[in-house]
Input
Amino acid sequence: MSVFQIDFGDTPDTPPRVVGIDLGTTNSLVAFLDLTAPLVIPGTNGSPIVPSVVYFPTTGEPVVGAEAQEALLTDPVNTVYSAKRLMGRGAADVAGELALLPFAMAEGSESVIRLAVGGRQLTPPEISAYVLRQLKQNAEAFLNETITQAVITVPAYFNDAQRQATKDAGRIAGLEVLRLVNEPTAAALAYGLDKRRNGTIAVYDFGGGTFDISILKLEEGLFEVLATNGDTHLGGDDIDDLLLRIALEDVDTEWGRDLSNDHEAVQRLRRAVINAKHELSSLPAATITLDYQGREYRRSFPRDVFEKLITPLIDRTLAPCRACMADAGVTPEQIDEVVLVGGSTRIPLVRQAVRALFKSEPHTELNPDEVVALGAAVQAGILSGEVEDQLLLDVTPLSLGLETMGGVVTKLILRNSTIPASATEQFTTAVDGQRNVLIHVLQGEREMVRDCRSLARFDLKDIDPVMAGMARIEVRFLIDANGILNVSAKDLRTGKEQSVEIKPSYGLTDEQVEAMILESFDKAEADFNERQVREARVEADRILAAVDKAKQSDAWFDLPAEEQTAVDKAINELHLSYHGDDHVLIQSKMEALDLASRGLAENMMNSAVRNVLKGTKIV
Amino acid sequence: MRLWNLIYRMNALPADYFAVFGISPQLALDLPELQRQFYVLSKQHHPDRFARASADEQRYALDFTSLLNDAWRVFRDPVARAEYVLKLLGYDTADSRTNTVPAELLEEVFELNMALEEARDGDSGARKQVAEALTHFTALRQDLDVERDRIFAAYDAAPADTHLETLRSLLNRRRYIDNLVRDAQQALS
Output
């Protein structure tokens, strides 16, 4: 008799480390939880900050970070920065913005933007993936271990498509994104480590490209977000653009020459205004200088002029703050602490505005450039189990709704609902024998479809052909802890899962992402195969555990002996294939076990299970 | 149906929002206590606690926690809670969406609508009238809330269908007044 030893091994002594990543508009960072405190990880140049810039030379490998920043001057049309502003968006969304950017958009960018750089066409997730890969490499070099899992932060006010695009970027970079965390919430986590106390905190996050405001309640290690608001299109970039436009006009007047179509000059001038902006945070005046083609431009810029110019932009952050307080049901007096996040909060006028609005002195102990990455590392620790006494309860920033008659949006899940959150809705057919029902899902606060953001169309397919109005399809909309929508459907007449085809309005399909993973240059074939084998094994574990459980039920003993033998044989064969490296074989053995266990499944259905199933219906 | 999907479903999720908190259906709830429970259950079941668990456990954590969040959201709002209980006990809430004017309010509603229209045209006298109506209907809504809480207590003490019938019509009236208050507030802002 042969005895085979079943080894469920493969579980190393220490589980793989999860890193926290702040994928920013301007700069990105990676951090990890070292014993109890989060630490940012430096790159080869010693700095933890990796500028979110990717240079695609016409020949050779793409370059990321500080080096790529240099290429902004020498080869601006092939150097991408601020790719985050393009994530999850379509051509129409960014038309105005791209006019200011040196790189060109390729054809067919309606639902996903494609940039033509370095003789290739790349989507924003692919470009962000290069930044993520660099961070992954930095972490691997520093920690001397392979990194495959990460927490990535996103602006709290990011919509579904923007979140999905960020997750896609992670997958393309070879990272399993265990959680997307909202940036202001991450910042609160980073601060929470130092002062563990109860109270209400406001996080004002004014970064390179986005603005977020979140109000949280802190209680016994529980970070409960009460409300969030923001503008995914407002940040330091806008200040730069404003100064740049003025400087370009100024140069035009002085030199009699319009430089706005000269990419190199524009990039040089952009760098000059950014330097001036930074200096103005600590000095009463700064000088914008441009030395270009033998000519020199110098303009002194006093802080009061600067402040007057940017006041309208800063004012735009105040309305979301007030709305957020109203939604959270708190007054400025009830807010115990204010936390500042993002480079733009270094501007004295911003601090002054925050102080005036919340009537308290904001916290600035942690470096505003690092605080989000540090918080992401804390969340990574929560997910890996290293941090047990803290938990984040976040909310969805935008209401989720369905298109109904007359182009009206019916809200299903309201904004600021704690996630995961769900809603169910019943659908039926309008004509006899109808096989499909199309559901249009939107995000936004307005009443009409045209004023909301189209998220996706879900096609309920292969509905049993019955008389009009007789079909009863229950659709469950679930926003998961990442703030991403999942949809499942059930035919209430048959109890069967109803197949749903998803057509995202913006962003990549699953197949496209898979193709990009395959294409990505440093992703060896072996790696991919290994991942598929690993996934197949996880699935097999789940199935084997389920069958094991079923074998202890009455249904098993009611099963004819030959069927029992067939199930046992299928189990053995699945076990045998389990440790091979052929995921196709594992899959086929799972299929075989599925087939062999049909009778067992039926038996279980027919016994007490039916009652249990009734009981599980989600009201 | 696949065997393993079946097994997953047997890992039964709570049948309704009350079962999530382990309490029996009731209308009056001790919200501070329920909030404590909400935090305790969140800490136990949140998906973040199962990031490294099996696919089944992850799925259960996600489903349970979404149910928990949905339940807490409904329970902490007395109106949403009452509507939920009515629906749970088989009272058709589709009926509650009708827009017929409660008979006793007909006259006042008519006057308010007139005033709203005039106020929109810039009539300052009408504005004052709208403001008065706003005060009136806000007070009326408060009275209804007191009455609602009385019905809650009465039903919990001795569950009887008559209480639920009364509650349903009260909710209808309240919803109608809610809309009036909102319209008046909009006209004044």
